[in-house]
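Retry 2 of 3 after timeout on previous attempt. Resubmitting structure tokens to design endpoint.
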């Protein structure tokens, strides 16, 4: 039996997917072109992360979770998608890719795995950033802890992630939400505008900027 909370999750995801696709279609020439000019650096970052995964992590993850049918990191209760995740994936997907996501979200999922986990892995073209940047203890132990160099590389990628997602300064994920809000589109996945924690971070950014302008302090901590 599918729980109400999970049905709500699936419905929320599907509604956001349809909203983004519809909004991009309605404002194709303006909104889409503007966003394409904004996400280039992020796509380059994601390509570097994917390359790191391919070289050092994919075999470990495939053996530990996927072949064993465990996939603990892809549990349905642990998947968080930001609105910007959906936008970027829609922009980088074809119609057939989106149809696959629609079908997955419309089906009841009675198991413990993420609804987006298909027979060949994740159904997204550009996976949610939370999923992409998560490493379980096994992966860390087998891939990173054996090499200080790899640990340094991964830590550097984690720091770069925050440049797009952590709103203690103007960041891409917040900007994308603002674009869509300005276009009259709204989703509960707009955590940059809904999450109390992230709103506090943004409030701290504004206070820090004001103090800096007033020459009262050179920096602030969120």
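Retry 2 succeeded. Sequence:
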């Amino acid at each position: 039996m599918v729980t109400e909370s999970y049905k709500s999750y699936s419905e929320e995801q599907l509604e956001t997917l349809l909203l983004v696709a519809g909004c991009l279609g309605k404002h194709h020439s303006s909104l889409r072109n503007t966003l394409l000019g904004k996400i280039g650096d992020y796509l380059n970052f994601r390509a570097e992360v994917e390359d790191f995964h391919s070289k050092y992590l994919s075999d470990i993850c495939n053996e530990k979770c996927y072949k064993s049918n465990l996939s603990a990191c892809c549990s349905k209760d642990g998947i968080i998608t930001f609105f910007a995740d959906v936008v970027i994936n829609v922009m980088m997907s074809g119609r057939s890719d989106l149809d696959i996501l629609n079908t997955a979200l419309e089906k009841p999922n009675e198991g413990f795995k993420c609804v987006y986990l298909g027979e060949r892995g994740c159904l997204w073209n550009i996976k949610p950033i939370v999923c992409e940047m998560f490493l379980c203890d096994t992966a860390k132990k087998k891939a990173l802890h054996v090499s200080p160099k790899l640990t340094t590389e991964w830590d550097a990628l984690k720091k770069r992630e925050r440049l797009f997602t952590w709103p203690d300064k103007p960041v891409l994920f917040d900007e994308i939400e603002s674009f869509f809000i300005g276009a009259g589109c709204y989703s509960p996945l707009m955590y940059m505008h809904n999450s109390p924690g992230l709103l506090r971070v943004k409030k701290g950014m504004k206070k820090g900027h004001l103090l800096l302008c007033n020459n009262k302090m050179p920096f602030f901590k969120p």
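Attempt log closed. Strands lie at 117-118, 121-122.
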